[in-house]
Design brief:
By secondary structure, the protein is of the alpha+beta class. The protein has helices at residues 6-13, 58-71, 92-109, 162-171, 173-178, 183-191, 199-207, 220-232, 247-256, 278-287, 324-331; strands spanning 24-26, 35-39, 42-51, 79-86, 112-120, 128-136, 153-157, 212-215, 235-239, 269-273, 292-299, 303-308, 311-315. It has two domains: 16-136, PurM-like, N-terminal domain (60s Ribosomal Protein L30, Chain: A), CATH 3.30.1330; 145-331, Alpha-Beta Complex (Phosphoribosyl-aminoimidazole Synthetase, Chain A, domain 2), CATH 3.90.650.
Amino acid sequence: MSKFSLEHLNKYVFPHFVCDDPDVILGSVFGEDVALTRIGEDVLVSHLDPIVGAVNDIGWLAVHVACNDIATSGAPPRWIQLLVLVPSENDLALLKKIMTDVERGAKEVGVSIIGGHTGYSSALSRPLVAVTALGPLNGRKPVLTSGAQVGDHILISKGIALEGTAILASDFSKTALKLGLTDGDLWDAKALMRHVSVVPEAVLLGKCGASAMHDVTRGGLLETLMEISRLSDVGLEIQYEKIPIHEIVACFSRAFQFDPLKMISSGTLVAAISPSKIDDAAAKLEQAGIPYADIGKVVPGQGVGVQMEDGEKMYHDIHAEEDELARMWTLYSPDETS
C-alpha cells in the first residue's frame, strides 16, 4: 500500500479539510502525522494509520504503528480505536488471530481499546486493520515534524529498513529462499519486528527537549528526512556511513534489490536535537539501552544532502507515492496463508 503523490494530495484531498473549530490547534497537514485538539485545559493528540501490506501479525503491527505516531509528539499513547475488515464472513479464524494480536500489542504499549468496527468485504483480498490512537499531552509542549532548527543534530534510533525487512521475511519467505537467503536469515530478519515500537525513545527524547521527531514509515528514512526538511524550512546534511544498517537488512536488500533508505521502517525514530541538549539525550538513550546514531546536522537551505563515498547526492522533491515495500508486492507473490 502506498500514498498518493503530494501533487494529488494537494489537489484532491487537502482542499476538502476545512476546519473553523477554534479548538483544533493542528489539523490535517502533510508531514505532520498527528492532530492536536484542545479538550478543556488539555490537548488531545490523535492519529489514524491502516495496515494492509503485512499479513502475519497485522493486528499487533497496526497497534504499534499508530501508537508510534502519538509518541513522536512527546505524549505517551493511552487509547486506541480499531477497524478490522477481513475478506469473508468465513474468515473467523483469521479474525480471532487479528484480535488476539491487537490485544497483545495493546498490552505491550499500555493502551486501552475503547471501540471500533469489525466486518468483512468480498472486495478485499487481504485483511485491513486501521487503528486510531489517542493520548493527552498533560501539559507537555508538542513535538512536531516542523520544529527542526539550524544547528540541530539528527539522531536515529536502532537502524533503518527494520519493518520492511521483517515483513519480507515473514510474508515472502518462499521468495527469500529462492533468492538465496537461508532459514537462519529468515529467523534473524523476523526478529527485527520485536523492535517496531518507538514509544520508549520518543517519550524519552520528548522529555529531553527534541525540536522535531518523526517515525520512519512509508517511503523510509529518506522520505522522513524530506518531510522534516520541507516542514521545518531547513536543509539536512546526512552522512550515509553513519546510518546504522543491520547486517541482515543489508542481506535482504541485496537479495530483493531494494534501497534501505526508501524502505518502510517502523521502529526507527528520527529526532532533531539542539547542540545544548545532545549530550543529555545521548546519555539517556544509552542508559535506557536504546541504540542510536548521530547521522548529520540541520543546516540553512532546503532539501536533503546525503554524503556517499562517491560524493553528495541531493534530494529536493517529496515522493510520498514511492515505497520499497509496496514495490516488492508488485514484483513478488506473498506466501499463501491459511
